[in-house]
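By convention, each integer encodes one residue's backbone shape. The lines below illustrate.
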Amino acid sequence: MPHSPQSLAKRIFDGFESYIRSFNTYTRLAPKYFRERNWQNMQINHRQRLRLYKDLLFQLVDEFHEKLGETASDRGIWSSIRKEYQSMILGRPDVELAETFFNSVIRKAFPGMSIDAELMYLTEGHESCEWSRDSDMIHVYPSQMGLEPIIRKILDDFDMGVPYMNKEQDIQFLIQSVKDVILTRYNPGPETTTEILKSVFYRNKAAYLIGRTFVGEKWMPFIIPMLHGEKGVFVDTLIFDRQIMSHLFSFTRSYFMVEADVPSQVVGFLSSVISHKKTHELYNAIGFNKHGKTLFYRDFLDHINQSSDKFIPAPGVKGMVMTVFTSPSLDVVFKLVKDHFEPPKSMTRQEVREKYKLVSLHDRVGRMADTHEFEYFHLPLDRISSELMEELRNTCNSLLKIENNELIIKHLYTERKMIPLNLYLDDCPTEEGLEAAEDYGRAILQLAQANIFPGDMMTKNFGLTRQKRVIFYDYDEIEFLTDMNFRVKPKAETYEQIYASEPWYDIAKNDVFPEDFRRWMIGREDLKEHFLNYHKNLFDPLHWQKIQKRIKSGELIHAFPYPEEIRFRPFERV
């Protein structure tokens, strides 16, 4: 072999170190852009960090193909490379990320390979993420300091480098919140202490402090969002509600920019604050989505080994572009792009994949589901129901391969399972239906503020999370809002126009007539009138045009990931 296993392992190791250096460089720009209120560069920086992994990986894989040639699929070579690589990453504070990087290289350089525990890091235990209480990654505030001095010290410790809008008022807001939520229920004692991660979590226009207080013989987590308005930095609220905190770290949110020299320790602390989130979700949340994907797959393998139910077609209206399946015991759906699309769909498979890529790089503002993309995904053949196999054969046969009692799917996306909104609205009580209908409209308008026009906005393309939050999950027709032309529908005046079987006026590809939405958005009679009145703006072209104007002017419209009614100053713009 012209290249030694040691030199090849060193090349992968150098590639990983280059990735980590660049990842940290992008991350460390977030505080600077926050100080400068440079929201456009904040968004660009976020997208560049997301692209980083694949850009470096593809470059490295091309190099390996050139060096290894036809021997790229030789197990013996990769076994030797892994042995050398293992010695290089041993003891690193980010060893779990280094393992995932190696997995990515071998999977791309050796396409179609089976999951091989001897060649890949499949079940290693470095992701245990046990939090060390003596970590130097936290600020500690003992109760002996007193409540007001603790609050003052927190704001001093987290100086954002710019003046506060009204620091004294922030202090009083925080003190009152602690009194209302904690001191009405618990009496602090000598053992009471407060811990806050030194790393600040940046996303969109906000900075978040993540902490917890030991009181009443248990840890009470909290999050402090800070915003940067025209008059300076201010504390926006104090969050104790675990459901709201969970939503901040939702799969529908973009990843945080947060410094994490020891990622497992950051995740360990987060696990103590948001205890019901899975480890892979927290790695996703802090930007290490490739390792989150690794952990997700490990969880999936565990599920396969511990369950026996079969995979079946997902409930709901069959999509024209995607075939979707799941299993009753799994909280995930699997989405495959069909081989052929029935009219009026006229796009290609690659165009669909580009839409999913767009979403992965965009701010999802809590209204679009995150996905993981897999190639050569293996499933036990005896776990595939006959109904599902027939549907797969009929719709996406080119993506299928059967080998060694396994179904191998050449390309798919995984996504969190949700209740299809159309099915939910078919059966839910009126009161719950009204809430869902209201949130359906809010979801569309919040996507618009993030410069996303969903395209096909029928309820079958939306789902409900466990918290009954409406999420958009069908991406094949999304466009940038700024590319659309929102028009008032011309009024028919002549006999020929009134009774024309086809529109008598010109319609360009990106023309949209919002008043037409009224006809099909909500069908249930006990919900429709309320929906039409509650969301009048949805049907007004001028409202859509105003959002477009704000975006085109360079404004980044902030998406609050918590109810605006809990803000200390709900009138304050950012």
Summary: The longest strand covers residues 218-229. The chain has 18 helices and 19 strands. The mean pLDDT is 93. Residues 482 and 548 are 6 Å apart (CA to CA).
